[in-house]
Design brief:
Spore Coat Polysaccharide Biosynthesis Protein SpsA, Chain A, nine-stranded mixed beta sheet, 9 strands
């Protein structure tokens, strides 16, 4: 399998499409030398991009990986048989891609696992075909690995952005450091997956991804890694990636399914690992399930939940949500704007 054994620069790649400027179109990461200061090779980093009909985004993703200026990169793209211009774009960058294939698969998780099965790196992650690496990301990860080569996970910060408001971004909350704050992951509003790199060796020990999952495969994998005897997280105080919000992304368009599967993974883990569940986990779970119930009601009633239905559904959760700001904010919205509830009846 060919590897990017020397740092790729702007002059090596095809020119950016007309009108595209900035990172990663006309800017690059300052390349690293081919070997580390002591003469050894840089730790190999493997990145897998699962892809399906994301032609409007994937070129930016590819360039953000290749222009890291990193001299020991293994980049794998697993496409599910795209029918848009994705294949044309992949072929454009084929000389710098370690492996790629376009064929029908069983969805995103299956594609990621297929890519992981081909990884030869020391550390790895997947980067979806609508997300980006930030400048210097792989150099920051490599430095962290040099300082803590025995770490299971290398975790940095994540920028979340929306193309419809290009100047709006916000930082994802601090990533988990130990199993106790990973378990009730919704308290931190998820995990910054594009900026979480993992030991290939550790992921192979736990069997890779659970391909039966469609949404919470990252969360479930992190939980299994966290149960390893020598589990260790090395935090990186840098922004490593950008997560793109758009109407077609699963995160935006399939939130109910996301939350349902997270709860499914959580319940299985809790049942099997009661002895390490953190204090207050039942109350935390109830609040998360309450969010899911409200999402389902909102969908059923076209955004206008009848007040009686809201109270009825809230009743069983009340011992856990009576001091929950989300519950009171929702209830006060009816009191402040009573016409909403009248219209909903």
């Amino acid at each position: 399998m060919p590897l990017v054994n020397t740092a790729v620069t702007l002059k090596d790649l095809p020119p950016a499409p007309e009108g595209k400027t900035g990172w990663p179109w006309t800017e690059e990461t300052q390349p690293l030398p081919d070997t580390m200061p002591h003469g050894g090779e840089w730790p190999r980093i493997s990145i897998v991009t699962p892809s399906y009909n994301q032609g409007q985004f994937i070129e930016e993703t590819i360039r953000s990986v290749l222009l890291q200026g990193y001299p020991n990169l293994e980049y794998i793209i697993i496409d599910g048989g795209s029918t848009d211009n994705t294949i044309e774009i992949i072929r454009k960058y084929e000389p710098w891609i370690s492996y790629w294939v376009s064929e029908p698969d069983n969805g995103q998780t299956n594609a990621i696992q297929k890519g992981f099965d081909r990884c030869n790196g020391v550390i790895w992650n997947w980067l979806n075909s609508d997300d980006l690496l930030e400048v210097n990301a792989l150099q920051s990860i490599s430095k962290a690995n040099s300082k803590e080569p025995s770490a299971t996970v290398y975790s940095g910060k994540l920028n979340i952005f929306d193309d419809s408001t290009p100047f709006w971004t916000y930082l994802h909350p601090k990533p988990f450091e130990e199993v106790s704050n990973l378990i009730c992951v919704w308290e931190h509003w998820g995990t910054p997956q594009p900026s979480i790199y993992m030991s290939c060796y550790a992921c192979r020990l736990v069997g890779g991804l659970d391909v039966s999952l469609k949404y919470a495969m990252d969360y479930e994998l992190y939980l299994r890694l966290a149960l390893m005897p020598n589990f260790k997280v090395k935090l990186i105080d840098e922004i490593l990636a950008k997560f793109r919000l758009h109407s077609d992304s699963k995160t935006v368009s399939q939130q109910q399914a996301f939350k349902s599967e997270i709860l499914q993974v959580f319940d299985k883990f809790a049942y099997q690992n009661m002895e390490i569940m953190p204090r207050g986990w039942k109350s935390s779970r109830a609040k998360f399930q309450f969010h899911l119930v409200i999402d389902e009601l909102t969908s059923q009633h076209n955004q206008n939940i009848p007040l009686t239905e809201f109270i009825k559904q809230s009743f069983s959760f009340f011992p856990h949500i009576w001091n929950y700001r989300f519950f009171w904010a929702y209830l006060f919205s009816y009191l402040k704007y009573p016409q909403i509830s009248r219209e909903a009846f």
